[in-house]
């Protein structure tokens, strides 16, 4: 078979991925082997491959491929998340383009459109992951709204409700006016924004006096139901029991007293709007205040908004400020920076809103999950450990989880209403079961299924994905099935720290609640992918490269190497495209090394040279030492360090030194024994590199020898660790320094490599002479002489050893040497002139510090001596 001199990545990647898929290497079934299980952090069904996905899934693929090579039953479960808010927004936008309003559709009609959209676009990101080389068990692909997955979610909701952990409550929630749904606290991102502080004056009833309050939201005065002062604030003692008139709407509201008011902040008077601020709601409940909601669900003003009805809140803010100023209520405006909550999904500014919602009590559930990570046993280990403090803070300050969403795309809440009262509902897994419960609750056997109205809300997306490691193996519906017992708990989870609470902590909670065991043993939290300017990569900044274009330009293997070379454990990744190019060039270097071995003629007649024997023993020892080092890095999830260890071993030690020692002389054959060892060593290199560069390594592996399906590299046996000779490694390192010294002499003296030289050594280090054959092979040294006295010629040192190379004109390229010495002479003479010019300046000599002048005189003396030496050398050459 003719081996091409250059590697064709596009052809190899397509060929070998198809081969792996065809032969089912990625698929796992329960057997007697030790399982190794990873579940993919399910990307949004709306998503396309970006740099964060590339990093996260490359790391997972490295871990799963290594487990396969180690003989484990490797199972990597892929899938996607239905992403309620994001997906519903995309479907609504698509319908709008088609002239269809969501509100004109029934729920069933809308869901039909949504599933049609999901079927068309939902698998894009998984197909893109295949381009990267991801070796997921695609037969196990799951979607969080698959029938079985949804059934598990509903079963868990009913179970938690029956345990008293889920309840319905009228609470202040985070409202996304763009998505028109509530959000959990964790889905709100707080941003520092520059705004205004408006000082407004309220008239006191039956008085000429006014009180001034400061607010960042003047539009909300229309929902004010009290002014609050601190009872200890002497400035306002005379206002106790009085009322004020709300500007514009002219409603009378009471002045109340509460120690909650900070006398030092603002004016010491606080406007209370219970419908639009959580703290105000608490005050309202305490003082039995009226609640006036001034907003529609899209954050336009409702009928309480007077002549602003139907206008957006931010438009009203400007207009009402102008009206208040014209009518004399606005005292002044100051610039004011404050934190504004925004929706993680839509980026809309969040509106606090009172609403009936479903909540999961978290305090008790969190205790087990907290102990799992921070207890003495560390049953679940976070890497890097710095995230443990973040985890502790979140779990110790946990609030009840708002799990209901005002959407149609998702699992509909299994609560069924049969009356007008707040308690007129039942919770059940099906309408049939709900009817039985409702009949029992009402003692009304005449109640029909059509009398029940299911809650229109759906469950938070995270309420399905928190079951992911269990539900992908059907462990909720069938808790004793053989797959959940075999694959669960999983081994490693690779994800981003931004969802440590959203997803990781909640999966830990679900794991202990439903399987009484951790869901995974290790959590590796990757950093964020940033550009060279440390900016987070995003579409809006335009600094995120096209993932598929990178693969096209640099190969999948090159991109994988580029990502991992820049991804130090747990730290943000400063992505530089040049690292992908480095990865591609690394692949080309390995291919060139392989191609070189195919050009050699192998002979059974040639005896194995001593230098080859030494090189083979040395490289095997170096490989074993590297295996120990990279296993330590693997155990700490320092995959960048693993890759760098392998990179140096193959690039420097194998390609740079080993092959140079063992390659035969020009047009001479290589002995069969050495060649066989080279191939065996090459195969071990491919095995340890395969998790990082799967395509290139499989291509070379299959070209080295004809392999059966069972002998493919993807399922080969990972090199076993054995003891190694540390002294041998040290001796070759020493010999390499000697080689470097000789090469420097050749370069400086223009001695051609084809010219043999002699080497004389004063062996103060007692270095072993057993490696002389390696030195001679690499430097074309005819003989190495061990002497006790110095020898004339060029010299250098390695530690305390002294080395001498006698210089003969026969060995020197005289023309090159004369040219080099002449250039050096001209430079030194020019340098001498500049120094002497400075020293001839009396002002410099008289005024400069003594040590500066002395330094210049030394430069003059050194230059004169050097010129004399160069001239003498030139004379000897002519």
Number of helices: 27
What does the radius of gyration come to?
38 Å
CATH architecture of the domain at 181-351, by name, is Alpha-Beta Complex
The helix content, as a percent range, equals 40-55%
Overall average residue pLDDT: 91
| Low-confidence segments | none
What gross morphology would you assign?
globular
Quick one: biggest sheet? 7 strands, mixed
Explain what you see.
The strands form 10 sheets. Strands 7, 8, 9, 10, 11, 12 and 13 form a 7-stranded mixed sheet that branches. A 4-stranded antiparallel sheet has the order 6-5-14-16. A 4-stranded mixed sheet has the order 29-28-31-30, covered by helices on one side. It is built from 27 helices and 31 strands. The two termini are 55 Å apart. The radius of gyration is 38 Å and the shape is globular. Among the domains are: 181-351, Isoleucyl-tRNA Synthetase, domain 2; 728-805, 2-Layer Sandwich (hypothetical protein PF0899 fold); 814-877, Orthogonal Bundle (Helix Hairpins), CATH 1.10.287. It is of the alpha/beta class. 44% of the residues lie in helices and 17% in strands. The model has no long low-confidence stretch (mean pLDDT 91).
